[in-house]
Amino acid sequence: MAIKGDVGKIMFENAGGTEADVGQTRSWSLSINKDVIETTKQGDTFKTNIGGLISGEGSAELLYAPGETGAGYTTFIDDVLTTGDNADALFELFPDRDTSAKKISFAGIITSAEYGAVIGEVQVINISFQTSGTITSAI
Predict the structure, then answer these.
(1) Structure letter (DSSP) for residue 79
(2) Which in 6, 60, 69, 112 has the greatest CB count within 10 A?
(3) Any residues with CB less than 8 A from the CB of 49 and at least 6 apart, and which?
(4) What is the dihedral angle through the alpha carbons of 60, 70, 84, 126, rounded to the nearest 10 degrees?
(5) Do residues 110 and 76 lie in contact, with contact meaning Cβ atoms separated by under 8 Å?
(6) Above 90 in pLDDT, residue 114?
(7) Which of 26, 4, 19 is nearest to 98 (CA)?
(8) Rounded to an integer, what distance in angstroms lies between the CA atom of residue 77 and that of residue 38?
(9) pTM of the prediction?
């Protein structure tokens, strides 16, 4: 059975903080990439490859909600302002908020936050992040 996109969620814990639901999420995405290392030798007529290092990067779109008091929301948005960040914040991305066992987990770093206001549209905050170390998928 297919799952609608409107039931996902993000849990976030910055270093030393408490894991909390990031409220006001509209969407999240994660791209996982694997380096490819060529192993072709002289005399081969076809290229051969092996998998290399794995990395990930993603984004989240949140509604701007000045009245939001949840620790996950404010910590997630403000983490981009952390200097000397060790990329040790915990991210958990859930396709379905009601199925806690189905998630993608990783340590990472928030790399950017984009704020804006457009006439006739709801205000959103776009957050970008990058993984650091192991990515665990239990989807």
Answers:
(1) G
(2) 60
(3) 36, 37, 38, 39
(4) 20
(5) yes
(6) yes
(7) 4
(8) 40
(9) 0.90
